[in-house]
Amino acid sequence: MQTAPVAPSRVSAWIYAGVILGAALGMLAGYAPLFNATAGVFVRPLASEFGWGRSQASLSYAASMFGLAVVSPIVGAMMDRFGIRRVIVCSAIVFGLATAAMSLQNGSLILWVTLSVVVGVSGAATSVLGYLAVLPQWFDRRLGLALGIAMCGLGAGTVVLPMTAQYLVTAFGWRMAYIGLGVGSIVLSLVACGLLRERISAGARASRVSALPPGVALRGALRSYRLWAIWFVFVLSSAATLSLGPHLPSLFADRGFDAAMAARSASMVGIGLLVGRLATGLLIDRIHAPFVASVFFVGGAIGVFLLRGTHDYGTLLIATALIGLTIGAEGDLISFLVRSYFGLTSFGALFGMAFSGYALGAVIGPIGLGAWFDRHGSYDVPLLVLPAMLLAAAALVLSLGRYRAAGHAETMPATASA
Length: 418
Fold this sequence. Notes:
The chain is mainly α and 418 residues long. It has 20 helices and no strands. The protein has one domain: Growth Hormone, Chain: A (Up-down Bundle), CATH 1.20.1250.20.
């Protein structure tokens, strides 16, 4: 039986605040900052211990993103069917255990890649795919702002966790660092899930269509140019930006900077990401989201170009911050674009499909970048190609046109119109 809507006057601001805080805390301890953002910290010690090249050491990042890309549409459909919180809880526990199990590496690339795929598969719902899926149920006119605030948790995690991982590696070794990160993730994720609430109970999901504003059905969306354009935009943009994640510390180290200064580059990405989340959230409530996206993609292209052209430490940090701004914008935009062009009827499944493009780009990028470096000993050519990819994404996102007439302007129930 469907749960009756709560009267607007009885909906406390604390409910909205709790949902945003839960999403922020969950993303802070979730897949992207805990595993992806720290990947570069583990590259050098693992390569040193097992005699791997950088392309081999960075396979973990790419393999986990491959697992996430494959499973994201399935996870999205599961959230539509079983509820977001249930899926996140199960995912968070397995993800934390899989991260801790990375400490069992013995130099076998098969084990390295297999466990990394498990991390990606289990971590999908602990990423923006899970935590941002609940916000469109509660927010309408201020959805962009809610997304931006919640995504600050991911930005904060991307700042704090690389430094935390570096400290753990230095003090206790890389094996204990993986265990510590995995256990911490489980604890924080369970707290986050305790704060989350859904407007639709599990028992009401059979009558979901009548409980939500009208939207595009899954079958119709699959025939839409816009869905596949959104998918390809994020393939291009994530390949151009997330590919740098596991390579930035090594790139800084190659230019003569010590491990702490190199690790700080990943934290600068997190600072840019944090600002990008907030700025994007504020802007897309007021300005057509494709326009906002194109500006951030151009900014990311400038950042990558600066990364190639300078050896000055301050300028390099500015470049990584610009890249972080673009990554921050990407996270907000996926959810917002799917919601604006397709509504909520099949939101979980469509969000999962769009997010799979984002994850696929992050598979292609790190492998290609690492393989090129191992073959040529330089990042120079890829750092010319990546800005061109971001400029192509900027052009493609502008082709999406106006929001769906009954989608972006649709009227949510009073409880969700914040």
